[in-house]
Here is the input.
Amino acid sequence: MDVQTTHKFKSVLIAERERLLNNSKESIKHDLNISTDDLPDEADLAASEINQSLTFELRNRERMMISKINTALQKIHEGTFGLCDLCEESIEKRRLDARPFSTMCVNCQEQSEHREKVYA
Here is the structure.
C-alpha cells in the first residue's frame, strides 16, 4: 500500500476514534446522570434502567471498536496495515474503505464466520 493511501486511512481512523471518544464523553454527561428522585413512578424508573442498559451496551461496542482502531493504527506504524492476519495477502481497498480496521480479507473473514457458525 502506498504512503498516501496509508496516510488517508490513518486520518480516517484517528477521526473515527475521536468521534467515538467524544460520543462516550457526551453519553456520560447526559445519558448516565439520572437521579432517581426525578423519576415519579416505577415505569419511569424501569424505562430509565432500560435506557442505561442500552447505553452501556452501545458504549461497550464503541470500546471494542476503539480497540480495533488502535490495533489498525499500530499496524500502520509497523507497516503491516492492509495485510490479512491469516493469509497475509492484501486486503481489498474497497473493504478497507468500508471498514478501515478490518484485519482479514473477505475470504478469510467468510471462512472464520463459517467456522463460528458451525461450531457455535
Summary: The chain has two domains: 1-81, 82-120. The chain has a mean pLDDT of 88. The CA atoms of residues 73 and 98 lie 16 Å apart.
